[in-house]
DNA sequence: TTGATAAACCGAAACGTTTCGGTTTCTGAC
DNA sequence: GTCAGAAACCGAAACGTTTCGGTTTATCAA
């Protein structure tokens, strides 16, 4: 079928080892180098990464397991990681486990069989059971967006605590003293941190606990819609609402539109992620914008370093935290003193 | 390191061929079957797909090359394909070429080196130069969303012509007789078809050619914004605007907001793709919704069939066309007789 | 029990690389 | 021209599977 190194060896009269050395950056005399290149050209030779992978036990492939490819945050992070990894000659196999623990575990097993060199994971199983057997192989794992206690591996997360605390402060600076927050499921560390940020900032600003209502939106559009409704149905009518992920933001806004609630006249809103979506809103939505590019870079760097260092004494897990930034639109109204 | 078939053979006292046969659905006596399963359990054996791939020259891996992962349409299609392929034991390596021909060509070469069994491609290079060498390997290619003349391979496309023609008809049914359309680059077959649909429907409905203005938005957000402005700057003030892909829709809407143009009072709009985005608009945007799920299913089916049929006499290329559907929101105004 | 037929099983060779230890060729100082 | 040391080169073995042809074992009718 296609040409092999042996064919190149025959064509050039050189030995197999020399050809291999050529492809792996070894020293080859200039004349032979030319001969090899001519033979490659002539025979349309292309290195067989499968064979190479078998021999070296390195597939130059990274496994990625995420809860949802449709998830903007995950998609953006992956997109940038792919860019960086490709430059280093690594391929990426992405598995979307649809926020399902069983599928997540299966995905990891699938990737293990394929001998991926390392794993990126935005974990669904907050106990990390799916990672145990992979970790035993000694191959590195980098967790993104969420930590798991008891699983010793590198992590890269947004500074979730501060992200939401900043949102609260922005609301307060505009005179809001009754706030609602739509949270994610509390098994997830990122969602916990965000809620913690909310409570802590409220306390710091002297906002009474009774004036802070929260509702869990399950990180889904439907959940976000339901939670928005729930918050507004309560007797404490918040003047400002903070929504702590992208899907829930979309869901909540759809529902607010349906309910005929105007932003920001009837309710001020701070959403999460996806600047393009925010800008397309009328009025432009104020959001917390996560630094996907920086996260991807940090994660890729961590991962590549671990792969290179394979075999060395593994050093302790690193935890990188990256700040988010507020992008102000016009969805937060300034409340005057007299009208609280 | 990890256990091999040889270890299983030693453990069970069986031969290598029997173990292999076990893993490939061959006949093994029940007693031996149990022994093998016990050994697998004990040694934590996992089949090595790399070795298998080398031997069989089938990696059970599909290469995917797309212009942009951020592209909603591409992301959705990929998401469903991944689902189907995983069920069949296939992995997917996705390469995002950032709408760049050179990167697209490199991506195909990269995947070829990795011996992927087949290729999915939403092509950027409309001459298909990047595919030639891959096609020579005899491995199948399925083109999605765009055809390339002169490249004989299966394709799966939306019925782009009718999708936009329907949009025009909807506008006309609401009394609009002066229309603007934001098109994609005309090198791309899908964009050509959409423009053709626009012109054809306008003609059919007796809308004067002078009342149909078009502007090319390059399939990007920025381009969509620019094109929207261009169309409204002309002396013919269209009452309705049709935008022929998702990014351009977002871009155009952002710009319209910035310009203070209200939808649909000042201008009726029909956008493209992403039903969630459309529903989050206020008023809800009327859009053309592409059937990503059906496209993914059709493409995966075509591909798997080709892979199974490898070696058989290749039958002629198939071209599947799938209808889009209109999802009506409130962004198209009904114009009364007197006020044109 | 026997014999014929089918079902299981077996080991060796092969897939296309990398790597190891050993051999040849080059280089340049004398 | 010689020699030592370095640089280049070499073939064979190995990685973990599948597959081929051939052998053993099971099955069952007579």
Short description:
The structure is a homodimer of 340-residue chains. Chain A is of the alpha/beta class.
Q: Nearest-angstrom radius of gyration of chain A?
A: 26 Å
What is the domain total for the residues of chain A? 3
Q: How many E strands of chain A?
A: 12
Distance between the termini of chain A: 79 Å
Ranges of chain A with pLDDT <50 over ≥5 residues?
none
CATH superfamily of the largest domain in chain A: Response regulator
Measured by residues with Cβ under 8 Å of the partner chain's Cβ, the largest interface is:
A-B, 51 and 51 residues
Oligomerization: homodimer
CATH topology of the largest domain in chain A: Rossmann fold
The largest sheet of chain A is:
6 strands, parallel
User: What strand line-up does the widest sheet of chain A have?
Assistant: 2-1-3-4-5-11
H/E order of the elements of chain A?
HHHHEHEHEHEEHEHEHEHEHEHEE
Query: What's the CATH class label of the largest domain in chain A?
Result: Alpha Beta
Tally the helices of chain A: what do you get?
A: 13
**Per DSSP, what share of the residues of chain A sits in E-state strands of 2 or more residues?**
15-25%
């Amino acid at each position: 079928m296609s040409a092999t190194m042996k064919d190149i060896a025959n064509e050039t009269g050189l030995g197999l080892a020399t050809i291999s050395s050529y492809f792996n950056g070894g020293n080859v005399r200039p004349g032979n180098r030319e001969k090899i290149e001519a033979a490659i050209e002539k025979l349309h030779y292309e290195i067989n990464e499968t064979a190479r992978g078998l021999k070296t036990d390195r597939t130059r492939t990274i496994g990625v397991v995420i809860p949802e490819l449709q998830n903007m945050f995950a998609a953006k992070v992956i997109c940038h990681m792919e860019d960086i990894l490709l430059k280093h000659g690594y391929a990426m196999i992405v598995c979307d486990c649809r926020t399902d623990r069983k599928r997540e575990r299966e995905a990891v097993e699938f990737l293990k069989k394929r001998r991926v060199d390392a794993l990126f994971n935005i974990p669904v199983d907050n106990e990390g059971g799916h990672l145990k057997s992979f970790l035993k192989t000694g191959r590195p794992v980098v967790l993104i967006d969420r930590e798991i206690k008891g699983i010793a591996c590198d992590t890269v997360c947004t500074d979730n605590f501060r992200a939401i605390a900043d949102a609260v402060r922005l609301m307060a600076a505009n005179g809001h003293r009754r706030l609602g927050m739509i949270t994610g499921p509390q098994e997830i560390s990122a969602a916990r941190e965000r809620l913690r940020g909310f409570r802590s900032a409220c306390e710091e600003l002297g906002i009474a606990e009774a004036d802070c209502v929260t509702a869990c939106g399950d990180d889904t559009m439907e959940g976000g819609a339901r939670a928005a409704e729930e918050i507004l149905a309560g007797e404490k009518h918040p003047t400002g609402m903070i929504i702590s992920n992208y899907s829930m933001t979309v869901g909540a806004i759809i529902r607010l539109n349906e309910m005929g609630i105007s932003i920001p006249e009837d309710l001020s809103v701070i959403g999460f992620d996806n600047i393009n979506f925010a800008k397309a809103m009328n009025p432009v939505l104020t959001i917390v914008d996560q630094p996907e590019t920086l996260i991807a870079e940090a994660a890729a760097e961590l991962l590549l370093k671990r792969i290179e260092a394979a075999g060395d004494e593994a050093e302790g897990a690193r935890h990188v935290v990256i700040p988010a930034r507020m992008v102000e639109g016009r969805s937060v109204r300034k409340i005057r003193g007299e009208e609280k």
